[in-house]
Design goal:
- The protein has 11 helices and 15 strands.
- By secondary structure, it is α/β, with parallel strands linked by helices.
- The strands form 3 sheets. It has a 7-stranded mixed sheet.
- The termini are far apart.
C-alpha cells in the first residue's frame, strides 16, 4: 500500500474520530434532558465505531485493492464526500494540537502553583469503593480516582481591591455522589478543604447523582466552614435527579448559601464583593447583572462568578467579572500521553477541560473536580484547589 494512501487513511480516521467525539462532547453541553443527552451520546459513539467498520467491510467484500476500490466503487464515490471534510478536520486538529502544546506561553496572571498529593486509600487503610464496577475499575493500571491533588494557586487580578490582597477561596466541584465511592472519601476531602483555611469555600455543581443518597450531604459536607461562608451552584447531574429543590434544601440545611442564578453583595474588609452564580444551560435564567451595583472609584469591587460549565465564560466576560470558577469537564478524566484529554462535555471540546485561562477582563479557573459518575481517572487526579488573589 503506497505511503500516501496510508497517511490519507490515518488522517481520515483522525478526522472521523474528531467529528464524532466532538459531537458527543457538545451533546453533553447543550442543556438537554438526561434521556436526550444519553440518546445523542449513544448515537455519536455508535457512528464513531461503526462507520469505519462499514467502510472496511465494503472494501473487503469487493475483493479489490484499496486504491482500485476507492477509484471505481460506487460506494467509495459516496465515501469521498465524507473523506474530504474528515481530512480538513484532521488538519485543523493537528494545527490546534501543535498550537496548544508547543506555542502557548505561561499566563502572566498565574504567580505560583503548588500541589500536594493525598492518597486517600492509604490514609483510610482501604479503598472506599462499592459495587462490582467500581472495584473492577480500581484495578485498571494508573487509575487515580482515590489520589487527591490539593493545589494552591496564586492569581493576579489587576482590579483587585487593596483590602482583598491575599483573599483566598477553596474551590470544590463535581462530587458526583453515586455510592460507588464511599462516604469516607468525601469526608476526607472535606477535612482537607477545611485544613486549607480559606476565607471562603465554594462548590460549583454536580453534587449528587442519586437522590436516594441525599442523606450523604449532611454526613459529608456539614463540617465545611469558612469565615466568609460556604456557597454553591448546582450542575446538570443535580438537575438529572429530578429533585434539584431537595438538593438545594439539603445544602442550605448544612450551612451553604445558594447562589444559583442570582447575585449578592458582600462587604469584606471595606471592599465590595459581588458574588454570582450561573447554572446555565440546565437552570435558567442566569442572574440579572444589570441590577448589580456598578464599579466606582469610591468603592473598590471584586466580581466573582461561580458557574458549573466553562462554557459560561463569554457571559462572564460580558458581565465584567474578574474571576470565574467552574468545573463540569473533569479534566477529561482520561488524559492520554502527548494527546491529552479526548472527552470533555463542552461546546469547546477539550479546550477548557481544566486549568487557568484569561481573556480580558475575566480569569477563569476550571477544576478537574473531586469525583465522576464513572470512577475512572487516568493521568487526571481529582482536584481540590485553594486560590489566593494578589494585585501584583
Amino acid at each position: 500500500m503506497p505511503v500516501v494512501t496510508i497517511v490519507l487513511t490515518l488522517l481520515a480516521l483522525l478526522g472521523h474520530a474528531a467529528l464524532w467525539v466532538g459531537f458527543v462532547n457538545r451533546a453533553h453541553a447543550v442543556g438537554f434532558s438526561r434521556v436526550i443527552t444519553k440518546l445523542l451520546s449513544g448515537c455519536g459513539h455508535m457512528l464513531l465505531m461503526l462507520t469505519p467498520l462499514l467502510a472496511l467491510g465494503l472494501w473487503l467484500s469487493s475483493g479489490e485493492s484499496l486504491d482500485a476500490w476507492l477509484s471505481q466503487s460506487a460506494h467509495a464515490q459516496l465515501l469521498w464526500l465524507y473523506l474530504i471534510p474528515c481530512w480538513i478536520l484532521a488538519l485543523a486538529i493537528v494545527v490546534l494540537w501543535v498550537q496548544r502544546h508547543w506555542v502557548t506561553t505561561p499566563l502572566a496572571v498565574v504567580l505560583e502553583q503548588r500541589t500536594r498529593l493525598v492518597d486517600v486509600a492509604a490514609l483510610l487503610g482501604k479503598k472506599p469503593l462499592a459495587g462490582g464496577r467500581a472495584r473492577l475499575l480500581a484495578h485498571v493500571p494508573g487509575n487515580q480516582v482515590l489520589q487527591l491533588a490539593v493545589d494552591e494557586k496564586q492569581f493576579v487580578l489587576e482590579r483587585l481591591p487593596s483590602q482583598l490582597e491575599g483573599f483566598s477561596i477553596t474551590h470544590l466541584t463535581d462530587l458526583h455522589i453515586t455510592g460507588r465511592i464511599g462516604v469516607e472519601f468525601f469526608q476526607e476531602v472535606v477535612q482537607q478543604a477545611n485544613a486549607l483555611r480559606s476565607d471562603m469555600i465554594v462548590l460549583t455543581g454536580d453534587i449528587l447523582d442519586k437522590i436516594e443518597l441525599l442523606g450523604w450531604i449532611p454526613q459529608t459536607l456539614a463540617p465545611l466552614s469558612a469565615p466568609l461562608g460556604t456557597y454553591f451552584v448546582l450542575g446538570n447531574h443535580d438537575e438529572y435527579t429530578g429533585a434539584a429543590p431537595r438538593i438545594r434544601q439539603a445544602l442550605t440545611g448544612v450551612g451553604f448559601t445558594d447562589i444559583g442564578n442570582q447575585w449578592r453583595r458582600l462587604d469584606v474588609a471595606g471592599a465590595e464583593v459581588i458574588l454570582a452564580g450561573n447554572e446555565a444551560p440546565w437552570f435558567r435564567p442566569p442572574p440579572d447583572m444589570q441590577r448589580c451595583p456598578p464599579r466606582s472609584s469610591d468603592r473598590p469591587q471584586l466580581r466573582l462568578l461561580l458557574a458549573h460549565s466553562p462554557d459560561q465564560w463569554p457571559w462572564a466576560r460580558r458581565c465584567d467579572f474578574d474571576l470565574m470558577l467552574a468545573g463540569h469537564t473533569h479534566g477529561g478524566q482520561i488524559r492520554l500521553p502527548l494527546i491529552g484529554p479526548i472527552f470533555a462535555p463542552s461546546m469547546h471540546g477539550v479546550k477548557y477541560a481544566s486549568g487557568t485561562f484569561y481573556a480580558n477582563p475575566t480569569l477563569m479557573h476550571v477544576s478537574r473536580g473531586i469525583s465522576a459518575e464513572l470512577p475512572l481517572r487516568i493521568n487526571c487526579r481529582p482536584e481540590l484547589t485553594k486560590i489566593v488573589l494578589q494585585s501584583k
